[in-house]
Amino acid sequence: MKITRIADAVVPIRSEISNAYISFSEMTASAVAIHTDAGITGYGFHSNGRYAQSGILRDRMIPRLMAAAPASLLDEADGYIDPAKAWKIMMANEKPGGHGERSVAVGTLDMALWDLAAKARRKPLYALLAERDGRQPDKHVFVYAAGGYYYPGKDIPSLLDELSGYLALGYNAVKIKIGGVPLDEDRKRIEAALGLLGPGQRLAVDANGRFDLETAVGYAEALNDYDLMWYEEPCDPLDFEILAEVAEVSKNPIATGENLFSVQDSVNLLRYGGLDPERDFLQMDPALSYGLVEFERILDAMEAYGWSSRRSIPHGGHQFALHLAAGLHLHGNESYPGVFQPFGGFADAFPVHDGRVEIPDAPGIGIECKQNLWNVFKDL
């Protein structure tokens, strides 16, 4: 098998929504297609929150893959392209550190390479990963609906309408943003959301790294009045000292990690973040953190520090992370039923039921099974 062409495109996912830190009014994403002489094409993209990576893709990563000797990319066992070998070629002559943009470009291509690898073997990606590791995959994966963004003119009744829509779609766990308004206003939003939920339904809150130490701890103490699924990203993603102080105060689980993009940063979180492997959750996103090749190193680091893979619930809300959740036995997956289209969400024919979703048995990731997403890729 030989790569014959790699195409990339910039796709707008702009929206007037905002979290406590940024507006998504100018947000874009990269999409790539890796074509081969076998007539099989792999498709990839990256998660929301990081802009399109055209420069790094076109100047460094794609040229390296295209210049590589075809045999250097192949799995010796069956002659198909090996994502791990391709990863080493993409990262040749790249210095350590500086994760955050390069990692997104590599993660975008890595997704396409795994889509290609699974299609070549005529298997869905989750089944390929589980079979490789000698385990039975999860056929149904827990997913929660991430929403509750701030929006011009959005009041509490509008927030409740949004959350009611997610519950009607089959979700039993929802997430809303905090930190974009004063604490007293956020408490009203939280209490209204909790009042909407019934037995067995959970609420998480997400500060998107907004708070300093005093505010993060103050919110943790206030949130202790509520039974929450978790309190997410209370402080800057790399400020592990603040995170440890928040974790000590919080009675609710802490979730964080979506803005850590390497195994090295993840190890520092495990060492110094003060998190509890029996209580808290890690949200490292494979599409933003150098792809599945690096994400498996992160899972190995978690195990070395006493964390089960079942405490991992990736950010991103897309099909790639869903396959990893099923094939690698993660806790579950984020979902964006109302925002970040066409990338958010899963296969059209598989609705959420009782907070869980099934994955189709289509080869690869199944991008072709989500029509509005496939409309992006078929032109590539």
List the keywords.
8-stranded mixed β-sheet; 3-stranded antiparallel β-sheet; alpha/beta; 36% helix; TIM Barrel; 12 helices; 380 residues; Enolase-like, domain 1; 14% strand
General description of the model:
The longest helix is centred in the first third of the chain and has 19 residues, at 102-120. The chain contains twelve helices and eleven strands. The radius of gyration is 20 Å and the shape is globular. Helix 4 runs parallel beside helix 11 (319-327). The mean pLDDT is 96. It has helices at 54-67, 83-90, 102-120, 125-132, 156-168, 183-196, 213-223, 240-249, 263-272, 291-304, 319-327, 371-377; strands at residues 3-12, 28-36, 41-45, 140-146, 173-177, 202-206, 230-232, 254-256, 281-282, 333-335, 356-358. The two termini are 20 Å apart. Strands 4, 5, 6, 7, 8, 9, 10 and 11 form an eight-stranded mixed sheet that branches. It has two domains: 3-122, 2-Layer Sandwich (Enolase-like, domain 1), CATH 3.30.390.10; 132-377, Enolase-like C-terminal domain (TIM Barrel), CATH 3.20.20.120. It is of the alpha/beta class. Strand 2 and strand 3 (41-45) form a beta hairpin.
